[in-house]
Amino acid sequence: MNQLSAKELRDKIKAGEIKSVEATKAVFERIAKVEPTVGAYISIFEEQALAKAAQVDKRIAGGEKVGELAGLPVAVKDNMCTTFGTTTCASKILANFHAPYNATVVEKLLSSDAIIAGKTNLDEFAMGSSTENSGLKRTVNPWDIERVPGGSSGGSAAGLAAGLCFAALGSDTGGSIRLPASFCGVVGLKPTYGRVSRYGLVAYGSSLDQIGPVTQTVEDCALMMNVIAGYDPADSTSVDEKTAPLCDYLAKLDEPVKGLKIGIAPKFNAGADEQVRKAIDEAINTYRNLGAAIIEIDMPHFDYAIAAYYMVATAEASSNLSRYDGVHYGHRTRNPNDYIEVYTKSRAEGFGKEVKRRIMLGTYALSSGYYDAYYLKALKVRNLIRGDFVSVFEKCDCIMMPVSPTTAFKMGEKLDDPLKMYLSDIYTIAVNLAGIPGISIPCGFDDKNLPIGLQILAPAFGEENLLRIARMYEKQTDWHRKRPNLNG
Amino acid sequence: MGNLEYKVLVGLEIHVQLCTQTKMFCGCALSFAEEPNSRVCPVCLGMPGSLPVMNKQAVEFAILAGMALNCQIAQFTKWDRKSYYYPDLPKNYQISQYDLPLAINGYIEIPTDNGIKKIRIIRAHLEEDAGKNLHTAGNFSLVDLNRAGTPLLEIVTEPDMNSAIEVRALAEELQRIVRYLGVSEADMQKGHMRFEPNVNLVITRAGQEFKTPIVEVKNLNSFKALENSINYEIGRQLDRFNETGEVMEMGNKSTRGWDDAKEVTVLQREKEEAHDYRYFPDPDLVPVETNEDWLIPIQERLCELPLKKRLRYVKEYGLSDYDAGVLTSERATADFFENAVKSGGEPKRVCNLLTQYFQKRANERGCNLTELGVKPQQVAALAKMLEKEEISATAAAAISDAVVLSEDLDPGKYAQEHNLLQKSDAGELEAIVEEVIKANPQAVEDFKAGGKKSGKAKGFLLGQVMQKTKGRANPKVAAEILDRKLA
Amino acid sequence: MQKKIDEAQVRKVAKLARLELNDKEVEEFAGQLSAILDYVARMNELDTNDVEPLAHCLPIHNVFREDTIKESLGTEKTLANAPQQDGSFFKVPKILEEPS
Ligand SMILES: [Mg+2]
Ligand SMILES: [Zn+2]
Fold it and tell me: What is the pTM assigned to this prediction?
């Protein structure tokens, strides 16, 4: 059963061939066995999950209509609010925080009859590329437990790769879905900014954050998108269907895109490790063999993306995280001498190093005298980067490039050098600045048996095409069926 | 020091609470005096993951007010975050508008002893209010977030006011305007309108000009406090200048709080530390763009403003400035008055009925004139009867009482049924006067004799006529007849 | 603008951000933030004089909500996460200054 994709399992549950309770039990057995090694979850909801599974089974047996994700055990990154359990963002400052409401995506999962197995680990407040910045626990890469799962949605990707759920949700501000998906050999989609509601997603960089699926297959990804995408009146930045019509992402998934034109930029692909580059070249070759045209593109401002990103994202973060102050909720320092110390000490105790670093950086970028040089400049560079994508997409349907210059790196390898860590997001960050969708799909392994991800980018609201393009490759290969060898 | 002249400069920063149903960015009902922290939700509590959504009504109220203040309405406006840490500010930033306010470059006209004066308005923008910190005794403060997220219109004027009286006139005029527009209840005691004056003086001494440091005054919760605090500041700043000669410099602006009991301002913050609010565009909200299709219907809701109305009443209806002021102080009263006039009531008589009679009844009941259950047509009918001298003032009072009690009452019918119509018919009155003359020879004699007794005798005879007609004789007509008969 | 951020600036920023930092952190941040800002300074290679700042990639504006009341959370749920409360109030050590 653990070999089934989410869609396959869902179909069997709906058909009554497999009971959701069986599938859910199998997941929790697997959790009991390997979770102590993997460390994917911050919290698990076994009792609640089994009860809901039994209820779904009963409804199916009774011939009742059930939702899109009927009986399917899934995981949610722990920066999405749930009325059950805690919502910690992997931060000590929210370690005991009980949200009084469900994120819109959580409501959507629940109303489509998914079984939420647990909430997954992440870099504290989604700030990081390795999940090593979690203030609460350590997650390893199931392909090599000495290595990081990528981040910040490391728990979702590692948990899925280790068979601890059938699909998961992550969030992506600068690559936080695509990078861990790539490092863990699974599929990860960052939708267009505005396609999926952010209501209930604890904000890091509000103009960049987007929730998306982490799945075993492209087909599963389309299935999850069918559930989570769409306008939400509670999120002013979610786009209505008049502006960008929604579609059934499964409907035409298996139709190849005719006359596909792929843009590649050899100049910056050259920055990747040789084995990564080789895998990407081979993947592009596969497309070429399917009849796709390969077009060389130039994106003159791409190299400035990380610089712009770290100003925009940290500026927004410094403001978004100012609410964690120990006054109304969250950690409060034990014996403050005055109310100012409630702020300064609670925040000093509650936040980890990377979060503090980014708050400092963002506060600086917005502070009087530096705003124009850093924050405003970054917004202008952001516009140039978006312009690059707009003009490239006039010539091609999609862009292909690596997700990351390397495969999963060793724990601790980049921890002492924040800038080096930031540079691991070199291929993913521009996408968030431009607001466009990007997907990571497995496209091979290096000589250490570590997965490599192919990144495909499409124009804004082009998810349907993007998924079809990804599916074309998936049908030709079986990288996505490979599983890590994990013995609990 | 004898040749010291000075000019007062006051600019105002005003926060007006809009009377929407719900808060600026969430569906919580606006709070009055509920249990603390009961009118809050994840959004106005600044809970992790929550997001703001604009209240359309608040934006439209703000546009309407901006139009009434003769401002240009921005075609493109956006939201910014203003960062500062305070326990009543749950997100530790306030959603406000920084460089692109909703309305700019307007003015408000205020009445002064020298006629109408224009006070320029720099800007008017929308923002959310903070909650309330309660500073109780002991080592703790308490925080109630019910008010957090309430829509506020912030209005900033140029320092165009030159006296405490002008400041008060502006405050009262603004109160009338926002109430006319129905965008705010504008009750100062309840904090619906909060004024923060910036006060300083330009002193001329021996032909040289000196500017005193600007003082921002806070904690003003009545018009009286507003006026008194400025007068106090004028005196204080003069004294201080005479003592120290201190003049305005960069960074020596200070904040003083008004102590209502002692009637003095008290220093709150000596030197205005350069704030670093780190304004930047709120990424959770999208911009607001306005166009004619949206603005014209709002413009149509713009009514004649109180001051214009007041001047018109004086000019068009010949009312006194005082009466015109009373009638235009509230829009409902003015509308009522105009409807009664439209229904044929002579303006002065309608005015008298309203100000001398119905307004009193309304005050007694603690309600608005329009809530008395009286119709403008009824008042018009009363005015007409008075005009034609069909009823006496006493009868008018009696009919008015009846009108207040019964909505459908027809004043004319009622007067007839209750024998309240005056007898102006000369023939009928002549017979009664004859009777009275016959019955009172002594009085007639006194009257004819002239001198001191004559007036008294005439009054007596007229009183007899009134008695015989049960008060319904038109006194003017009766007196004429009497004069003629005894001439 | 190539100015590296020194320790005094780090302390100033930390105060703005309401973060208590020890001396070691101040020193560390001065070094790390300077390195990052040096990297960020590469943006100056680009002439952006005629470029509009892009705060948002969205093709939308005027997203409104009707002015209709929705149920509030209720005092109990509101205070459920409060570190300290007094009756229906959040409780904090005495506030002595005005907001700044
Ligand atoms: Mg303000
Ligand atoms: Zn609310």
Answer: 0.93
